[in-house]
Amino acid sequence: MIQPKRKSRKTGFSGWYLAGGLIFIFLLIFGPMIYRYSEAFIRSGFSFSAAGQYHNLKNFGVPVPKGYKVYGIDVSHHQGHINWEEVAAMHANDIKIDFAFIKATEGITQQDLRFDRNWRLSKKAGIVRGAYHFYHPSRDAAKQAENFIKKVKLSPGDLPPVLDIEVTNHKYKKEIVEGALEWCRIIEEHYGMKPIIYTGTKYYSTYLADDFGDYPLWIAHYDKARPGISRKFQFWQFTDKATINGVKKGVDMNVFKGDISKLKKMGSE
To answer: Would residue 86 show up in a list of annotated catalytic residues for this protein?
Structure first.
């Protein structure tokens, strides 16, 4: 006997409301965790492209000073996972990245989590590399120098160490100068070369101009005009918003006063 067909059940509006509510509660509880782990997955190097939205750029996204032959960047862990091969391969308006300063240490204990990888792969990509220390005038200068020395081993061709000094930590000029000179003395004695001083134009004029005239200078000045200081500089950081192939986030970009051979002569022997 043929059984009569049963009428199919239809889900009422209350069922949809219940399902929607459950999804909302799930996302509310587990959403932040999913986002955090997916971000970690991407940064670990398993992203579709390490360069993200900055892949195959045709320019640097900012006005670039003319009249220079050598350009470079400086980076730290804030730039995340960097594809150094793409950085080295980028050519935009006949400009390429020849050098990179890489954050190594800060204060007396901090060491940049990305330094080892950036240090190794930038050299492998053929980029002239240098390491910098973010200096705190409120901390012991000798211990800060020791922190840098423990982390950074220079090879022939590497640029001189850099003292990044841009904060006062509520210290007076005399204390700032004495500590910075102590750091430089220890570093020069260990590596056999004068370190480079990195700072802004105002900071240099206010605190350093009287005592650091014989050190190579790397000046930060984000104006189209050249830095208005009374002495010569070797490097000029002209922006912190450049877009570079192989780097996800905006990055500091610099020029060097001289050609590539002069840059390489600054390196350790």
So the answer is: no
Residue 166 designated active-site = yes
Model's pTM, two decimal places? 0.80
Catalytic-labelled residue, pool 74, 106, 112, 158: 74
Amino acid at 263: L
Candidates 3.10.450.30, 3.50.50.60, 3.20.20.80, 3.40.190.10; CATH matching 52-265? 3.20.20.80
Domain segments of the chain as ranges: 14-46, 52-265
Report pLDDT digits (tens) over 44-102. 333 333 334 445 677 899 999 999 999 999 999 999 999 999 999 999 988 999 999 99
Alpha carbon distance 133, 143 (integer Å): 12
Among 85, 146, 166, 211, the active-site one is 166
